[in-house]
Amino acid sequence: MRVTIDRNLCGSWAPACEECFGVFLARNYAPDRACITEVLDDGSDILSAVIHSGRFVGTLIVRPENREAVIREGWRKFSTLPDEAFDICQPHGDDLRKAARRN
Length: 103
Known about the structure:
globular
């Protein structure tokens, strides 16, 4: 499965984002979060996520062998995003409208 996440649409601090993503994984990828902008089921048991956070774009690979660790420990240490990518501001209404027009 391939997923695109835009943290700029939410603005939650990193621990809340990690917990939210853990619930997403635990519920078998139900795309019920505003930050999840694209889900493509490619039939794979590996989840590949592209994560937009502030001005950074990183990746996260969740395999069956690390899935439980990502759920329990959070996804940050498994991603390619630098620490400064997690200091994002709450989205402004204009930002949300622009994002909605892109989709």
